[in-house]
Design a protein that fits this description.
The protein is built from 17 helices and 17 strands. It is α+β, with helices and mostly antiparallel strands.
Length: about 600
């Protein structure tokens, strides 16, 4: 029984039973004591009465005046004590001399009795006092009550007058009378259990109401009102407790509701953050992980992991331990290597509270794109400076040569002016490509799309690139269905195709064939393709071929007259159409450039 009702019923019931049994047994023991005390008093009174009526000649026969007590068994001349008692067979009379020797007995032959001097009642009577005792008789073999009186002849103690009586056992004699009392413990137990049952049920009910009240506090439903619950109890103490609990429960429910709202807000904030957030205790065991942290470190388990187990980064662990030791925030940058690529993060690590050693909060902001943009900016400045330095120097140098050249040297003048013009055109092309790229990269630029026949666009671009192709003895072959159409910005798409065709002609040997075409891939994609017969692109360069100013062979690119921005422009035009730019090549087998856009038309 592990309930309050069961335990109280068991404990209080057993206690009531024990008390009832104790009182009943105590009463029976007291009655037994009173029973034997009453019988002893009656026996003593009977002994006094019998001694007073004992004939004088009998006493003188056993205890002669001035004579000495017999040293041995009494002679046959002594009066028979059995005749004196008559039919009082329940009593036994024994006369004993001063030496403790039985002189006469109403039940047994006195000559066969042992010395009685050591009997307690006899010893008391030989000292001049009334003696009594209760014991098992060695002669009769049963329990007897003894009462002994001193016998005097004159002023001399001559012997002992002892009267004994067998007394029936209290339990045997009063069994029938005492049996009703034996039911008293059972009745008391039943009555006690009844009262305890009622009390325990009331107490258990009060505690059940108390439990329901406390459970209501943790209920998920906001409308579970406390006033709808029954009263705990009408007992004064429980009433006071109930008032305190209801007040505390109402306040606690408000705080729980507020805490849940705060928790939901915090969870929404953490889930909406792009930063990685990790919170941990003083043992660096994670207590909070947002989804971005799980994705970055591939954490599938819940909280409880150590920082090192979750992130596998000794750098983060050392930073966290430093924050715990110094109780000061810490900022640094680090690179985290993932299965696909490495990412750069700015890490903020700070203590969770003002007290040292209570925990650490870490926020990791991804700055990979910023670092890459900064690197692109530096590369852009360096590349533009590098691209402009040579033509500017040539223009400057040949301008100085012109100043020093005689006006009559027309051939020299024409050669210098031709070189200056060629480099001015290179700078103009570079400037135009830079302006085009800047316009394409403008986040607010939204080109207008129109439904155009794709073969017409490819043909228009091929006509623009045909001059360079004929100059090298090459040809451009168009492979496109005349019914193919799509929504595109025609100016931008033609510009992208011209860039691809120009590159194909420039980097292919003389007399080669450039193939340009378009086709659909399934129902979703439209693919433009320009294929050349050039030397191909090594695999390590394919990923970066669309970056601005990226050249595989810088000397050959300058000789071909490229600015290094053509493929970057192609990629941005593809992005503005919601597509991608791709390159496929194998060394010595030519290259294929593709623009993949959605096939909506």
């Amino acid at each position: 029984m592990k309930t309050v009702f069961g335990k109280s019923l068991l404990v209080l019931g057993l206690t009531a039973l024990g008390i009832s049994c104790f009182f009943v047994v105590s009463i029976l023991v007291l009655m037994d004591s009173l029973y034997y005390e009453t019988n002893m008093r009656n026996l003593r009174d009977t002994a006094l009465a019998l001694r007073s009526v004992l004939p004088e000649e009998t006493l003188r026969a056993y205890f002669p005046a001035g004579g000495k007590p017999e040293a041995g068994p009494p002679s046959a001349a002594y009066p028979n004590l059995r005749n004196f008692l008559g039919n009082q067979n329940s009593y036994r009379l024994t006369l004993i001399n001063a030496e403790g020797i039985p002189l006469g007995d109403s039940r047994f032959d006195a000559g066969g009795l042992e010395n009685h001097r050591e009997r307690s009642e006899v010893a008391a009577a030989l000292q001049g006092r009334e003696g009594s005792s209760r014991r098992k008789s060695a002669t009769a073999g049963i329990d007897l009550l003894y009462a002994a009186l001193p016998v005097y002849t004159g002023n001399t103690l001559a012997g002992v007058f002892r009267l004994s009586q067998p007394v029936p056992n209290f339990w045997n004699r009063f069994a029938d009378a005492a049996r009703p009392y034996l039911y008293l413990p059972i009745l008391s137990m039943l009555a006690a259990f009844g009262g305890v049952f009622i009390f325990s049920r009331s107490l258990g009910g009060s505690f059940k109401n108390l439990v329901r009240l406390t459970q209501t506090v943790s209920a998920e439903t906001e409308h579970s009102g406390l006033s709808a619950l029954p009263l705990i109890s009408d007992t004064l103490e429980f009433t006071a407790l109930e008032g305190a609990l209801r007040s505390m429960a109402a306040e606690l429910k408000g705080r729980i509701r507020t805490a849940r709202e705060e928790s939901r807000r915090l969870e929404a904030i953490l889930n909406g953050m792009s930063e990685v957030v990790l919170a941990m205790d003083e043992h660096l065991r994670l207590s909070l992980i947002n989804p971005q942290a799980r994705d970055l470190f591939l954490i599938s388990a819940g909280t409880g992991l150590s920082l090192l187990e979750a992130t596998r980064s000794t750098e983060l662990e050392e930073a966290a331990r430093r924050v715990l030791a110094e109780n000061q925030p810490l900022e640094f940058e680090m690179t985290i290597h993932g299965p696909e690529k490495s990412r750069r993060f700015r890490v903020f690590a700070g203590p969770l509270s003002h007290t040292a050693g209570e925990g650490v909060i870490m926020v990791l902001g991804d700055i990979t794109r910023l670092v890459r943009l900064e690197q692109i900016r530096r590369d852009f400045v360096a590349n533009v400076s590098h691209e402009l330095r040579t033509p500017i120097q040539l223009v400057k140098g040949f301008s100085e040569t012109l100043l020093d050249t005689s006006l009559d040297d027309r051939e020299q003048i024409r050669r210098c002016i031709g070189i200056i013009l060629k480099n001015a055109e290179a700078m103009e092309n570079l400037t135009n490509d830079l302006l085009s790229l800047a316009a394409l990269e403008d986040g607010n630029y939204r080109p207008e799309m129109e439904l155009r026949n794709i073969r017409e666009l490819i043909t228009e671009a091929a006509l623009s690139a045909d001059f360079l192709a004929r100059k090298k003895g090459s040809s451009i072959v168009i492979d496109c269905s005349p019914d193919l159409s799509a929504r595109v910005n025609s100016l931008l798409m033609v510009q992208a195709l011209i860039n691809l065709m120009d590159n194909a002609v420039k980097y292919s040997p003389s007399g080669s064939r450039v193939r340009a075409g378009a086709h659909t891939a399934g129902e979703k994609d439209l693919i433009f393709e320009v294929q050349d017969e050039g030397p191909g692109i090594p695999a390590q360069h394919l990923e970066r071929i669309f970056e601005r100013f990226y050249r595989i062979d810088k000397a050959r690119s300058r000789e071909a007259g490229g600015t290094g921005l053509g493929l970057a422009i192609v990629r941005h035009i593809a992005l503005l159409h919601g597509g991608t730019a791709e390159a496929e090549s194998h060394a010595g087998e030519g290259s294929t450039f593709r623009i993949r856009i959605p096939a909506e038309g």
